[in-house]
Amino acid sequence: MAKSTNAKQTKKVTRKAQIIKSALKVFCVKGYDATTVDDIVKKAGCSHGLFYHYFTNKQEVFNAVLEQHQNRHVRNVNAKIKDVPSYREKLKIALLDLIDEYATNDDLAYYFYFFLSQAFNIKANDLPLPDLCQGPRAKTVELFYNIIKEGRDCGEFSTKHTVIEDVVILFSIVVGTAVSYVVAPKEIYAKIPMPNVDYVLDIFTGETK
Fold first, then answer.
1. Residue 148 structural domain
2. For 138-188, how does the pLDDT look when each residue is reduced to its tens digit (9 = 90+)?
């Protein structure tokens, strides 16, 4: 009886995860506003009934996408850096967590690509920033911002740029990697090395001039 219950629970988790994954891919292609529940259902290969068993509407599955990627990264990194004294090492751990996930979970690349493409669409069409994009990566950005700021405050990071400029540079590298993963043919992307984390860190410690 216990085995049967566990199998059912595992199946539920797998189905829900597949819907979330499919929703992310559709959001990347069509954008949030143009995506419908029907689009997500077709991509996931499930029924509307199954979709509504897990989610009330499109916004709810979108929130699940945010929860899955943004909160996971922040929780993992905070747990890893809790007792690490060096801010350089904290930043390295945070970056490696993202890069390692690129290598094992292509959903993360699509996640960053989606928000980047949304930003371009909003700017190109002079559209107001919708609620769904109010700080979509806020927790991740805040995590990196705090590490860099605290590292600068204690003198470990010594670049002449502002914290905001440092964060912009950092996320340009991260998002650029994500875009390359999504748009480049797989045989080409496989030949492109991931960013050298130690080289990136040199920017923030002032070792790269």
1. 2-205
2. 677 788 889 999 998 988 887 778 888 888 888 777 777 766 766 665 676
CATH of the domain at 185: 1.10.357.10
Total structural domains within the chain: 1
pLDDT bin (cut points 50, 70, 90) of residue 113 is low
The amino acid occupying position 153 is D
